[in-house]
Amino acid sequence: MTVRFRLLGDVGAQVRGEPIMIGYGQLRSMLAVLLVEANQVVSVDQLVDRIWSERRLPRKPRAAVQHSMTMLRNALAPAEGVTIARRSTGYQLTVEPETVDLHRFRRLVDDGRAAADDSRAATLLEEALRLWGGEPFAGLTTAWLDSLRATLIQHRHAVRLELVDVQLRHLARPEHTALLLPDLAEWADQNPLDERLAGQLMLALYRSGRPADALDHYQQMRKRLAEELGTDPSPPLQRLHEQILVTDPALTVPRRPRIAVPQQLPARPRLFSGRARELAELDAALGQDTVVITAVGGLGGMGKTWLASQWAHRNLDRFPDGQLYVNLRGFDPTGQPMPAATAVRGFLDALGVAPSAVPTGVDAQAGLYRSLVAGRKMLIFLDNAADSAQVAPLVPGSSTCVVLVTSRRHLSGLVAAHGARVLNLDRLTDEEARRLLATHLGEDRLAAEPGVTAELLTCCAGLPLAISIVAARATAHPDFPLSALAGELREQSELLDALDAGEDLVSLRAVFSWSYHALSAEAAAVFGAVGIAPGADIGLPAVASLTALPLARARACLRELEQAHLVGQHAPGRYRMHDLVKLYAAERAHRDTAAFERVVDFYAHTAYAADRTLAPLRHPIAIGVPAEGAVPLEFEDDTAAAQWLTTELPNLLAAQKLAAEQGLYAPVWYVAWSLDTFFRRRGTYHDGLTTWRAAVAAADRTNDRDAQVMTRRHLGNECGGLGLHSEGLPLLHGALTISEETGDLPGQAHAHHMLASLWQGRGDYGRALQHSVPALRLFQDVGLPVQEARAHAQVGWDHAQLGMYEQARTHCEAALTSARRHRDREVEADALDTLGYVAHHTGDLSQALDHYRRALALFREIGHDYIEANILERLGHTHHALGHHDLARTAWLQAIELYRAQRRAKDAADLRQLLDGQSTPSRRRDEC
C-alpha cells in the first residue's frame, strides 16, 4: 500500500514512505476524527464538538470546519484513493481501512481472537501490538480525543494480557517461557495492582523453574493489595498460589514430544466385506521377535490396499507411536515409481525433523529415519511397491516396528533378505463378492434379480475395484432394474474384448468403459484430462485450469466422477485416481498441448504468486501472462502461501518435469525461481539444487541469455549453501563474466552478492568483502533500494567478522533504516543480529541484548529456525557477560535443542561443553 495513516502515536500520514505535512494541531485533530470514523459521515456538529472545547470555540465554527477541510484535501492530494467528500450532513473521508493503523490494529486483534490455533493467534496479536508507536494522538488535546485515548490504551493493555495468555499456552518448554520473564516483570512493576498480570508472571516464573520467586511475588502482591486497597487477592490468584504450593501438575504445559507421532493411514474402508482368512493371517504375523514384514500381493484392483487399511485400523492400539504411510506409485501409468529417497524424506517430515536438519545424502537420510523409529511401536505401511529394491531402504531395523507392503509383484528379494511373509490375494469367492455388492446395493435389490446379479458379478470377476465401480453405477440409478444396467455393460464388454490384452485390465476395461460412457460429455473430458495431469493427485483449481472450466463446473464434473468411483476425494478439494483407472483415463484423453500449457502455467504462476507473498520485496523476474484458460491463485498472507507450496510441492516438481518434456522451457525456471524462498526458509538446499539444475538444463535449450545467466547464478548459490564450493564458484564466476560482457549491472550485482555469501560460508570474510562491497555499489548505481539494504547488511556482517566494528555499525544502521522503510523483516533481522554482535564486542552489552531479542523475534516470525539457534547462542553469551547466568543457561539450552533438531551435532556438543563447564568452545566466527 502506498498510503499509510498513523493514529497510534503522532498523528500523521505517509505516501510511499515519505511523510505528508499536515500542519498545525487543529488540522491534525480534524484528520484524526475523520480517520477514526473512516468511511463514515461525520456531521459538522460532531466535528466542532470533538475538536474545539467551548472555551476555544471559533467565532464561525462551520466556516472553520470548511477551511480545515480545504487544507486537508490539499495536504492529502498525493495520497491516491483517499478523498474527503461533502455530504448532506457533514464530511466523509474515504480510505482503505488497512491503511489506518488503528483499524488495522482492531482487525488483527479480531483475527487473533478468532484464530484456530495459538501459534497463529500469537502472530496476529504481536503484529497488532507492533503498530503502536506511543500514545494515540500524541500531542493533541481535546476532550473527545483524551477520552478515546484512554479507552485505546486500556484496549492495548487487554490485548497484551491476551497475548501473554496465548504465549503461556503455546510455549511448552521452560526455556521458551523464561524468555517472557524480562518483559513481564517490567510490565508488572508498571502495573503493580493488576492481578491478572501478577498471575501471568507467577505462572511464567513457575514454569521456568523458579517456584520460590513465583511465591515471593504473590506475597508482595498480597501485601500491596492490603496496604493500598484494603483487600485480599482475588480467588483466581489465591487458587494459583495454592497450586504452586502443592506443585499441581495442571500448571505444567505438556512437553511436546521430541519426535512427532504420525498418523498417516488412509481412511478406513467404509464398506469392507470378506477376507476373514487373510485378516487372520495378518494377525498371526504379529508377535515375532524380529521386524515383522508382510507383503500383500495380487493383481491390480484385487483390494490389497483395501485389506491392508482395514487390518491397520483394526490394530491401531498396537502402534501407539504412530503409523507411517506412503503410496510408492510402483505402477503409476504417468511416470516412474517414487524413489525410495523421496519416501524417506516424506517420513522424516512426518517424524517432525526440521527441513534444515535433513542430511543431504540418501544413505544419511535413511540412517536418520531408522534411528528415529528404533525402539518405537510403529506401523510402516508401504503401498503399491514396484519391487524389493524400492522397499529395502524403507525397512527399519527395529523389531518393535511392523512393516506392511502391498505390491502386484512377488517380492522375492524382500523374502530372501528380510524374511518377509507373503500373503497373496486371490479374487473374492462368489459368496464374498455377492456380500460386497450387497453392502453397496442392499440385499433386497439383489434378491429381486438373482440371475442378473450373477451376470454382473461374473463380469466383475471377483475384483473389489470392479464391484465398487459397478455398484456406483447402479446406485446412481436406484430406480433402474439391474437388467438394464447389465445390458449396457454387456454391450461395452463386447466392444472392448479385443483390447483386454493386459493382465491387470482383464474385465476392468469393460467396467471402466461402461462407467465412462455413462458420464456427461464434460465430465468425460475432465476424466481424460485428470488422467494425464502431472503429479499423484490434483486440486480443484488445477483441474479448472487444466480443463479451462470455471471452478463451479469443474467441481460438478469431479463430483460426477466421484459418484462413479472414478476419482476419490482423499482430502477436501483434492482428488486422485486408482492407477488402473488413471491408465484407462489416459487412454481416453485427448493429447491436448494447450491443456498441458494451462496446467503447467497454473502451477508456475501460482507458485510465483506464493513467492511474491512470502518475499514481496524480492527483485522479480519477468514471467509474462498465463495461457488462456489458466487461472492462477492469489494468497492473503504468508501462512496461506507456505501451506499451498507445502501441499503442492510434489505436483510442482512434476509440473516442472512435464514442462521440460513438452518443450515448455520457460516454466521450468519459473518454478525453480518461485520455490527458492520456500526452500531457503526450510533449509532444504538439496531440493533447490535439483530444481535449479533442471532450470539450467531448460535455459540451455533456449536462446534466452538472461535466463541462462540467472539460472546459473542461482544454481551456484545453492551449491554454496550445500558446501559444494568447487561446483558453485565456477557457476557464479561464469555468470559474473557474462553479465560484465553484456553490461548487465543488476546481474553483476546479484552475482557479487552470491559470491560473497559463498565465501562467507567458507569462513573467508576477506574474500567475501571483495564481492559484498561491489554488490552494494552496483545495487546503489542501478537504483534497487531493497537489494541495497541487503547488501549493506552483508557488508556489515563481513566487517563485523573482521573486527571492523565502526564500519559494520554504519552499514547495518543503513540496512536497518531501509529495511524498516520497506518492511523487509529478514534484512531488519539480519542487521539487528550484526548490531547485537558489534554491541557485544564493543562492550555495550545492554544494547546487544536489545538487538538480539528483536532479531530473534523477527527470525521466528519468518520461520528461520536455523539462524534462530545461532542468535540464541549469541544471546546466551551476552547474558553470561552481564552475570545473568540463569538467562544465559536458558538461552543456551534452547539453542542446544534447536541444534539437535537440526542435526548440528558439533554445535550442540560444543555448547553443551560450555554449559557443563568443561571448556570454552571454539566457535566459528559466523556463529558467535
UniProtKB/TrEMBL annotation:
Residue ranges constituting the OmpR/PhoB-type domain according to the UniProt record: 17-93
InterPro entries membership: AfsR-DnrI-RedD_regulator, BTAD, OmpR/PhoB-type_DNA-bd, P-loop_NTPase, Sig_transdc_resp-reg_C-effctor, TPR-like_helical_dom_sf, TPR_rpt, WH-like_DNA-bd_sf
PROSITE patterns: TPR (PS50005)
Keywords assigned by UniProt, alphabetized: DNA-binding, TPR repeat, Transcription, Transcription regulation
Superkingdom per UniProt: Bacteria
UniProt TPR repeat ranges: 829-862
Signal sequence bounds: none
Record domain Bacterial transcriptional activator: where: 100-245
SMART domains: BTAD (SM01043), TPR (SM00028), Trans_reg_C (SM00862)
UniProt record similarity statement: Belongs to the AfsR/DnrI/RedD regulatory family.
Name this protein carries in UniProt: BTAD domain-containing putative transcriptional regulator
